[in-house]
Amino acid sequence: MIELHDIRKIYQLGDEEVHALDGVTLTIRDHEFVAIIGASGSGKSTLMNIIGCLDTADEGTYMIDGQEVSDLSERQQSILRNRKIGFIFQQFNLLPKLTAYENVELPLIYQGVSAHERKERVLEALTKVDLAHRVHHRPNQLSGGQQQRVAVARALVTRPSLILADEPTGNLDSHSTKDIMNLLQDLHKQGNTLVLITHDNEIAAQAPRRVRLFDGRIISDSAADTPDSMQNSVSPGNNPDSGQDSDSSAGRPERLSDSDIQQNPDSSLDTPDHLSNQDSTAAADPLSERTAAAENRSAEQPQASPRSRSHESSENRNGGDAQ
Ligand SMILES: Nc1ncnc2c1ncn2[C@@H]1O[C@H](COP(=O)(O)OP(=O)(O)OP(=O)(O)O)[C@@H](O)[C@H]1O
Ligand SMILES: [Mg+2]
Question: How many Cβ atoms from other residues are within 10 Å of residue 223's Cβ?
Fold first, then answer.
């Protein structure tokens, strides 16, 4: 369960204050599928970054499964992200030098999952997104839709309970958009909580609950008109708590205990060769700015002009690791 109360985020740009979030109060229950809609600049990514513990609010409280996030150290927040949250971004954010297989494997390495189990889970995830025949391809050898499917596989391979998708179809054609939306619907049916950010009303209409932002405030929430008993959008047959499909190995999201958060995730790290020369601090968190910066330095990315570079760095803060 996600509970945001009176969240404010203010950016200071010279003399100007930008109220990116201006008192957002929002509860998202386990297994919900919520679309966050709003025009460009309305605060959607800022909200997602706070929900995903990629950024912190200036004011207000944020509890995730009863745990106040601001009480956690950066390290603990990073572990929480890695164990509990799967991210999907508009720009895919795959590491360009790694194959599809290696990109999907990465979060499992951070979790210290054994090589044998990693192989099983990576292949299972890539099969789920219908890419078992592209495991050795690098991102630049894949179409946009395929790259986003790799990113979905990377997000689901850790069996996160919460999936955050920021404009996941923003760079895709209508066919690939349909594929990705079907995959997201499947993830929701399997019991994941899904938060989908979009400015596209047609995409948003596929979510049972829609929350609209305007200038950093929630101006409508379709759940507000729904009787309490109807708000949980998962049908009994799909609800993991309904008693059906009780085998936790069947891809069901795992809840994270406090002891998991305290535990050092690197203790059983079994790093394959292709990662051993990476900066270990950056490698501690695939979404850290340092990883993002490394990714932006990749030879595949054209040199940005100073103006677009500063835009990119602001995108990085927004999206964790855009480009
Ligand atoms: N790092 C930053 N520094 C200063 N202002 C920022 C920063 N990040 C975001 N903003 C401002 O905060 C507001 C909300 O930005 P945000 O990225 O959350 O919007 P958005 O709804 O995701 O827009 P889009 O649909 O274009 O992605 C905008 O006015 C933006 O200019
Ligand atoms: Mg955005």
Answer: 22
Query: Which residues hold their Cβ within 5 A of ligand 2, which is an ion?
Result: 45
Any idea where the domains of the chain sit in the sequence? 32-54+73-212+263-319
Which ligand approaches the C-alpha of residue 11 most closely?
1
Which residues' Cβ are closer than 6 Å to ligand 1? Answer: 11, 13, 18, 20, 38, 40-46, 199, 314, 317-318
* Ligand 1 pocket mutation pick from 18, 37, 50, 200 by most atoms within 8 angstroms of CB: 18
* 242: Cα within 13 Å, side-chain hemisphere: 14
Helices of type H across 200-254: 201-204
Alpha carbons 260 and 256: distance in angstroms, whole number:
6
Exposure of 219 in the CB half-sphere (CA atoms within 13 A): 11
Detail the DSSP E strand segments found in the chain. Answer: 2-13, 16-28, 33-37, 59-64, 67-68, 85-89, 162-166, 193-198, 209-214, 217-221
Predicted TM-score (pTM) of the model is 0.75
d(CA 254, ligand 2 centre) in Å? 28
CA pair distance 305, 316, nearest whole angstrom: 16
* Grouped pLDDT means (10 residues each) for the chain, 323 residues: 97 93 97 96 96 95 94 90 91 96 95 96 95 96 95 94 94 91 93 94 95 97 66 41 36 45 41 47 43 40 37 36 33
Q: What CATH topology corresponds to 32-54+73-212+263-319?
A: Rossmann fold (3.40.50)
Q: Rounded to whole angstroms, how far apart are CA atoms 8 and 161? A: 25
